[in-house]
């Protein structure tokens, strides 16, 4: 059963056993629901790492996860772990879509709750489709042909957030020159399945707009970042152990909330390979 969340996007999916291969018709229904609702939550799904990997592969090949060392023996699974005594900022605490600086950013991400803190640790999602829809026709016409510049440098570069932090962290993060590269994508993208348009920018990885000065680009980007995360476009996911989330990186941003110092939080994450984002012109 697919129950849309109140508030405009996201849905809860019940009645499936994700530890076994989904029948083709069911998989097609889940895919269609994913394109429509953008974030799907599947409560009560205990899965081994092998079952998580097998589930991911039902949706498509693994994406490529740079800058974070994967789990031993599981090169396509990241463990997002924060120990009770950690003081470093929790991982993912900035609005982003996963790896948007790649030439082919991951179409989706799967996150499976292992150990969930009693307080805090929610994941927030913002709907970049309705944020786009909310703009005036004049603003949409101005933004439609633009291309935004993405880079991992603010997070993983030589002077980035992780390179500068001094606190210990359970996760092994690899910073360096590779993160300084840039990649240009359409600022407005068309979803390959639903055909819906969405803003494709985020404050962690989008660093400018092609052809504009830094000041000009940032002025427009700041306006868009604020619009995307307005409360009317945001949905809050509260975790329980064994809940599995599947989200769409082409139409949403997400933010991992903290507020659980003194508690352990452990998640297992895989990404689904994607294509180069389609701009409006390319999709027309
Ligand atoms: C992330 O993938 O950005 C982290 C999400 C989370 O831990 O809630």
Characteristic key phrases:
15 strands, 284 residues, 3-stranded antiparallel beta sheet, globular, 8 helices, alpha+beta, binds succinic acid, 7-stranded mixed beta sheet, Double-stranded beta-helix
Furnish the topology, listing elements before pairings.
Elements: E1 2-4, E2 11-13, H1 24-37, E3 39-42, H2 49-59, E4 78-82, E5 108-115, E6 123-127, H3 128-133, H4 137-143, E7 147-151, H5 153-156, H6 161-164, E8 182-186, E9 188-190, E10 197-199, E11 206-209, H7 214-228, E12 234-237, E13 244-248, E14 252-256, E15 265-272, H8 280-283
Parallel strand pairs: 2-3
Antiparallel strand pairs: 1-2, 3-13, 4-15, 5-13, 5-15, 6-12, 6-14, 7-8, 7-11, 9-10
The structure holds succinic acid.
Q: Could you characterize what this model shows?
A:
This protein is of the alpha+beta class and 284 residues long. The protein has one domain (2-283): Clavaminate synthase-like (Double-stranded beta-helix, 4-Layer Sandwich), CATH 3.60.130. It has eight helices and 15 strands. The chain has helices at residues 24-37, 49-59, 128-133, 137-143, 153-156, 161-164, 214-228, 280-283, and strands spanning 2-4, 11-13, 39-42, 78-82, 108-115, 123-127, 147-151, 182-186, 188-190, 197-199, 206-209, 234-237, 244-248, 252-256, 265-272. The strands form four sheets. A seven-stranded mixed sheet has the order 1-2-3-13-5-15-4, with helices on one face. Strands 12-6-14 form a three-stranded antiparallel sheet.
Listed once per kind, the bound small molecules are: succinic acid
User: Tally the helices: what do you get?
Assistant: 8
H/E series, N to C?
EEHEHEEEHHEHHEEEEHEEEEH
Structural class comes to: alpha+beta
CATH superfamily, by name, is Clavaminate synthase-like
Spatially, the strands of the biggest sheet line up as: 1-2-3-13-5-15-4
Write down the overall geometry. Answer: globular
Level-2 CATH architecture: 4-Layer Sandwich
CATH top level assignment? Alpha Beta
C-alpha-based Rg, rounded: 18 Å
Biggest beta-sheet profile: 7 strands, mixed
Strand content: 15-25%
Number of strands: 15
Total of domains? 1
The name CATH uses for the topology is Double-stranded beta-helix
Mean pLDDT: 97
Helicity, as a percent range = 10-25%
